[in-house]
């Protein structure tokens, strides 16, 4: 009971006070400092709100243990039943990305490797396991899980990763297995997934110590659906010329749709972001100052080099206006029916880009390239994410042949900085940019 | 005598190249020497030497390429990919597919009817497909670069070298020597191994256009033959292959004027 009160107070009282204090400190620091010259448009006002939202999420999480049930889940997990049961939800992938973006990944990667985890394993998994083993995290403290929940719709690695976490924390793990979709999913695949969602609810109810309220589940599902639609509207603002933001901005602004999906906080944030982007379109404000070329990004971002990479492109007038990765959290909206939460979840969570065949990937890339009027594409061949990177050589050829796009295949890793070679990657990018002139 | 109009410099990982061209893109004079750590000074001295030898205007426009190009702030900087394409197009006058094997990396460039880059591919982050790979292993075998082609041609059969990594290949070669494998067979095998890696880069870009080769490794006939074998296609080595990048850089200056 006391822990529950502390958890509630952390979000409602302590965080707003601390946030006000740190905003004031930031303002003091900024006072008198000249803004650095850069090729980007004016920063989005929503950035501050985004920072607050995500900091609050991690701050409140410090007090979740013992106050509310805690689940650690994969990015593509159907979390709506967990949210409806009052779980605090932690996304290790989001946390790993945060560690990498804050240049705090190497120690954690090495901690996992010293424990025997292969360097060929996904760097998200290694950072997370390293953090679990050492307790080190830039967010202060992650709450210990009561439940681990993974879904194979993003990769198979998650099943082994979460089994290791289960062994480390000695808590149950639930795996939702989504058969790979070639063309269309078979009806028995969908019923198989729906059955597993029923089993998930049974385990989650046992841990939460309460039964799920069907009305609350429907409300959560409706909120998740609305969040996906709103996020999609934000992304679609990028169709304007010039695009009012960059897909690189989108990589940061997608954090709420991943981690807070199904909550009103998430949706009110995206209403605000959508309105700001729409206003920028009306006023002709671009994400970069001079948009001369529009590019598509495929695969996860390179979190530890995002600023450097985006500057390198933006300085030469290249704007990433669309990304398959950010789009992945918007494309499933049409499949969700809040009145049929489990049935529609089974389909929506199975039809994600990483769980579908190469023909779908190609069609999706082509559609995005055309709708967003991209004249080039950068395909990040991501050493950590094999399901996303396999087939990119063929995708590259087809995009070049069928749409006459200039395409660059960039070899790196989403969060292991040791797999990034500055000089060689810079050289490839510069050659790619020169080929437009 | 033609008037010098532009200077092109290619500061590679192994060799420094500089050319002075006239308005038609003809090389009037050139310089090739090992790259020194003081690249900026080397470029300054090299350019001064060429200018002095030709007695031309010291204020000629300069363009630089290669990994050390950033060390020459006074020059227009372009990547080797763009420059090799421009150089190769100037020398052949038609679109083509170029393999540039240099010290640090291998590039495959497809260029169009104006010398523009249409597509390119490079070896990944290690030196496995580069001139440096050969250099390291040949050094270990005490084989001078000048006698490589002759030695490889004497081999009865190639000895398989399976390691992709230069460091592991070096130790593999040591153990092959210890097992009594003939040096010429190992050298032949090394060229076959390297060629197969380059062929994998060429394959996705392969087109009907003639296959061309530039870069220092193109001077190694054994490598050219191994690559022809791997690709099942004839290769035309461009004249003075080491200078193609520097020539392209000089042409880029001319084109931009």
Overview of the structural elements:
The complex is a heterodimer of chains A (437) and B (257). Chain A is an alpha/beta fold. Helices cover 54% and strands 10% of the residues of chain A. Chain A is built from 19 helices and eight strands. Chain A has helices at residues 2-30, 46-61, 80-84, 92-101, 105-114, 123-134, 157-169, 187-208, 214-236, 247-253, 255-259, 264-283, 306-314, 324-327, 341-348, 358-371, 386-389, 392-403, 422-434, and strands at residues 70-73, 88-90, 147-151, 173-176, 293-298, 318-323, 376-382, 406-412. By secondary structure, chain B is α/β, with parallel strands linked by helices. Chain B has one domain (4-125, 199-256): Nucleotidyltransferase, domain 5, CATH 3.30.420.40. Helices cover 40% and strands 21% of the residues of chain B. Chain B contains eight helices and ten strands. Chain B has helices at 39-54, 80-92, 131-140, 148-153, 166-178, 183-202, 221-231, 244-256, and strands at residues 4-11, 15-22, 27-34, 62-65, 76-77, 96-101, 106-111, 117-122, 211-214, 236-237. In chain B, strands 3-2-1-4-5 form a five-stranded mixed β-sheet. A five-stranded mixed β-sheet of chain B has the order 8-7-6-9-10, with helices on both faces. In chain B, strand 9 (211-214), helix 7 (221-231) and strand 10 (236-237) form a beta-alpha-beta unit. The longest helix of chain B is centred in the last third of the chain and has 20 residues, at 183-202. The two termini of chain B are 22 Å apart. The A-B interface holds A 393, 396-397, 400, 409, 411, 419, 421, 423-424, 427-428, 430-431, 434-435 and B 67, 78-82, 105, 116-122, 124-125, 204.
């Amino acid at each position: 009971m006391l822990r529950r009160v502390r958890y509630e107070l952390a979000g409602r009282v302590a965080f707003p006070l601390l946030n006000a204090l740190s905003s004031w400190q930031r303002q003091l620091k900024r006072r008198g400092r000249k803004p650095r010259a850069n090729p980007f448009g004016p920063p989005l006002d929503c950035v501050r709100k985004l920072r607050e939202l995500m900091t609050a999420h991690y701050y409140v999480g410090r007090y979740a243990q013992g106050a509310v049930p805690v689940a650690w889940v994969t990015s593509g997990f159907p979390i709506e039943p967990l949210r409806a049961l009052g779980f605090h939800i932690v996304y290790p992938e989001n946390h790993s990305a945060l560690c990498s973006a804050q240049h705090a990944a190497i120690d954690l990667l090495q901690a996992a490797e010293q424990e025997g985890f292969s360097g060929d394993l996904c760097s998200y998994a290694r950072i997370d396991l390293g953090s679990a083993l050492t307790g080190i995290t830039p967010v202060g403290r992650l709450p210990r899980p009561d439940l681990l929940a993974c879904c194979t719709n993003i990769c198979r690695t998650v099943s082994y990763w979460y089994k290791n976490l289960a062994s480390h924390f000695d808590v149950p793990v639930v795996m939702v297995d989504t058969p790979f979709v070639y063309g269309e999913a078979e009806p028995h695949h969908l019923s198989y997934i729906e059955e597993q969602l029923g089993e998930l609810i049974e385990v989650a109810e046992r841990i939460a110590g309460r039964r799920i309220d069907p009305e609350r589940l429907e409300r959560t599902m409706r909120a998740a659906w609305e969040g996906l639609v709103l996020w999609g509207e934000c992304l679609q603002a990028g169709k304007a010329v010039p695009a009012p933001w960059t897909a690189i901005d989108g990589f940061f602004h997608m954090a709420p749709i991943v981690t807070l999906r199904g909550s009103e906080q998430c949706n009110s944030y995206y209403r605000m972001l959508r309105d700001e982007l729409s206003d920028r379109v009306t006023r002709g404000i671009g994400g970069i100052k001079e948009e001369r070329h529009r590019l598509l990004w495929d695969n996860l971002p390179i979190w530890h080099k995002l600023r450097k990479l985006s500057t390198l492109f933006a300085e030469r007038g290249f704007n990433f206006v669309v990304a398959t990765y950010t789009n992945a959290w918007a494309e499933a909206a049409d499949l969700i029916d809040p009145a049929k939460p489990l049935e529609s979840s089974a389909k929506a969570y199975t039809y994600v880009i990483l769980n579908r065949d190469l023909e779908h990937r190609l069609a999706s890339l082509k559609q995005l390239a055309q709708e967003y009027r991209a004249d080039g594409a950068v395909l990040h061949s991501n050493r950590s994410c094999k399901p996303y990177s396999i087939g990119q050589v063929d995708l590259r050829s087809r995009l070049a042949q069928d749409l006459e796009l200039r395409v660059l295949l960039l070899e790196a890793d989403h969060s292991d900085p040791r797999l990034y070679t500055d000089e060689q990657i810079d050289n490839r990018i510069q050659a790619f940019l020169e080929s437009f002139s | 005598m033609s008037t010098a109009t532009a200077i092109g410099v290619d500061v590679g990982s192994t060799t420094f190249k500089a050319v002075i061209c006239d308005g038609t893109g003809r090389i009037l004079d050139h310089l090739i020497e090992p790259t020194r750590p003081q690249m900026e000074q080397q470029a300054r001295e090299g350019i001064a030497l060429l200018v002095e030898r030709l007695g031309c205007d010291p204020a000629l426009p300069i363009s630089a390429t290669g990994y050390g190009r950033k060390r020459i702030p006074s020059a227009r900087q372009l990547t080797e990919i763009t420059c090799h394409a421009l150089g190769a197009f100037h020398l052949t006058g038609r679109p083509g597919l170029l393999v540039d094997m240099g010290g640090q990396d291998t590039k495959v460039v497809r260029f169009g009817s104006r010398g523009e880059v249409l597509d390119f591919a490079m070896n990944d982050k290690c030196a496995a497909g580069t001139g440096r790979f050969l250099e390291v292993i040949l050094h270990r075998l005490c084989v001078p670069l000048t006698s490589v082609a002759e030695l490889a041609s004497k081999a009865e059969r190639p000895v398989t070298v399976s390691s992709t990594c230069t460091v592991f290949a070096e130790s593999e070669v040591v153990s092959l020597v210890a097992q009594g494998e003939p040096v010429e067979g190992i050298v032949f095998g090394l060229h076959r191994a390297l060629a197969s890696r380059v062929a994998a880069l060429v394959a996705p870009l392969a087109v009907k256009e003639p296959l061309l080769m530039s870069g220092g490794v193109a001077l190694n006939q054994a490598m050219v033959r191994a690559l022809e074998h791997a690709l099942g296609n004839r290769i035309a080595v461009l004249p003075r292959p080491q200078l193609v990048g520097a020539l392209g850089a000089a042409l880029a200056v001319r084109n931009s004027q």
